[in-house]
UniProtKB/TrEMBL annotation:
InterPro entries per the UniProt record, alphabetical: Phage_capsid, Phage_capsid-like_C
Pfam families to which the protein is assigned, alphabetical: Phage_capsid
Span list, region Disordered: 65-97
Domain Phage capsid-like C-terminal: 141-423
Main location: virion
Entries under SUPFAM superfamilies matching the protein: Major capsid protein gp5
Localization per record: Virion
Name under which the protein is recorded: Phage capsid family protein
Highest taxon of source: Bacteria
């Protein structure tokens, strides 16, 4: 089985094949022929497919690395305080194991064991109906707030799927109330030169703003067959993966294109509450295509002070990436570079490129086609509780059980000057 490094090298080789095709056509001063275009697209499709293969191999290698680490032996002569601390940890682990077993039992049967009811009561202030429904009618299933570890694992599944969550600043709140985020829409003016005893000039330009993040209810339905639940030794994992996939798709789309009305505000949505049209850059783009010079214009539209750290990058749809891969700079060098190191995404002008099927991909006059910026200035607020409802009877005719997951989430860009949005030229 090839390693992730070997796969990346093979992927880089495929990229070189595609570039050689384009270079040969450029040298002859012509466009790619129909046969060459078909070959180019086929090679680049293999490049995209190998990207997923590389990601899977890196995750596998990371897990294997963790399993190979030796278990640390407990030091002899440990004092009573440390032994008691360990006993406390063991009791907590035992309680967690009991909750996990009870939760898996709920997923398979709809019956709620006593070990989960205490957790419901702790959250009664947030969702009183959850506690009442569960305790009142065990046999009917109803709502259930998942154990803490299960919630964390489900959130991690979503994080792995949604690159915006990995890059953004995430705030966890205990209830579905507003979280005020301070913004700075107008910066302070330059300092003034003064003599030793002159009065200091007061600044009157700087102004602070406030953006309220109010977690909104997000829900998704997943159906699992009765046979799968009955035969599976880990029903929790099945439900977690299914709901994680559905919540991931919904959140990624919202963080990119939602309008902010009872939902997050997306980075591709022009809004005075997020990124206004003042951050749009059309540059030399035509009404239907991206031009290389405009990519430079977009980068230099963002203050260099924001271009520090590992949260800076581009967002494009794969259709836009396909076009950008063919662009060159004034030295005839390709602007797009494949990631060669483990865990490193592809790059454009030295910055990572993140692809999303939910990014705009309609190449029509005046529409958005990409975005660049520091995504740590996109803030997400979510409630630290996840509820699952088990639908026992609704899908009985098809031998399935429905699971509805519910969580509260909001998100928005809080500093528009950290972003620049690329659009096509107006008609």
């Amino acid at each position: 089985m090839p390693t992730s490094v070997e796969l990346r090298e093979e992927r880089a080789g495929l990229v070189k094949q595609a570039r050689d095709l384009q270079a040969a056509a450029d040298a002859e001063g012509r466009d790619l022929s129909a046969e060459e275009t078909e070959q180019f697209d086929r090679v680049m499709a293999d490049v995209d497919a190998m990207r997923s293969q590389v990601d899977r191999m890196e995750k596998l290698e990371a897990v294997e690395s963790d399993l190979d680490r030796p278990v640390e032996r407990q030091a002899e002569g440990i004092d009573s305080e440390r032994r008691e601390h360990r006993r406390g940890e063991q009791r907590a682990e035992a309680r967690e194991a009991e909750e996990r077993a009870a939760f898996a039992h709920f997923l398979r049967t709809g019956e709620v064991r006593q070990s989960l009811r205490a957790g419901e009561e702790r959250h009664a202030g947030l969702m009183a109906e959850v506690r009442d429904t569960i305790i009142g009618t065990d046999a009917k299933g109803g709502y259930l707030i998942t154990p803490t570890r299960v919630t964390q694992q489900l959130v991690k599944v979503v994080d792995d799927m949604v690159f915006m969550r990995r890059l953004a600043t995430v705030h966890t709140v205990n209830d579905a109330k507003k979280l005020g985020i301070r913004t700075l829409p107008t910066h302070m003016a330059d300092a003034s030169w003064t003599t030793e005893v002159a009065a200091v000039t007061e600044d009157t330009t700087m102004a602070f703003g406030r953006r309220d993040l109010e977690p909104y209810l997000l829900s998704k339905l997943s159906k699992v067959s009765l046979r799968t639940l009955a035969l599976s030794s880990d029903a929790e994992s099945i439900v977690r993966q299914e709901l994680g996939y559905k919540f991931g798709l919904t959140q990624e789309k919202a963080f990119l294109t939602a309008d902010g009305s009872s939902k997050p505000l997306g980075v591709f949505t022009a809004s005075a509450s997020g990124i206004s049209t003042g951050r749009d850059v059309a540059g030399s783009n035509t009404t239907t295509a991206i031009v290389a010079d405009t990519l430079f214009d977009v980068v230099y539209a963002v203050n260099p002070g924001y271009l520090v750290g590992d949260k800076v990058g581009w967002i494009f749809h794969r259709d836009a990436v396909k076009a950008i891969r063919k662009l060159k700079d004034s030295d005839n060098q390709y602007l797009w570079q494949p990631g060669l190191q483990a865990g490193q995404p592809d790059q454009l002008l030295r910055f990572p490129v993140y692809q999303s099927e939910h990014a705009p991909n309609t190449f029509t006059a005046g529409l958005y086609v990409g975005l660049f910026g520091n995504f740590s200035y996109y803030h997400i607020a979510e409630v630290n509780a996840f509820a699952i409802q088990r639908l026992t009877e609704l899908y009985a005719a098809t031998n399935e059980v429905g699971f509805i997951g519910r969580i509260w989430v909001d998100g928005a860009p809080v500093l528009e000057s950290a972003f620049a949005r690329m659009k096509l030229a107006a008609s």
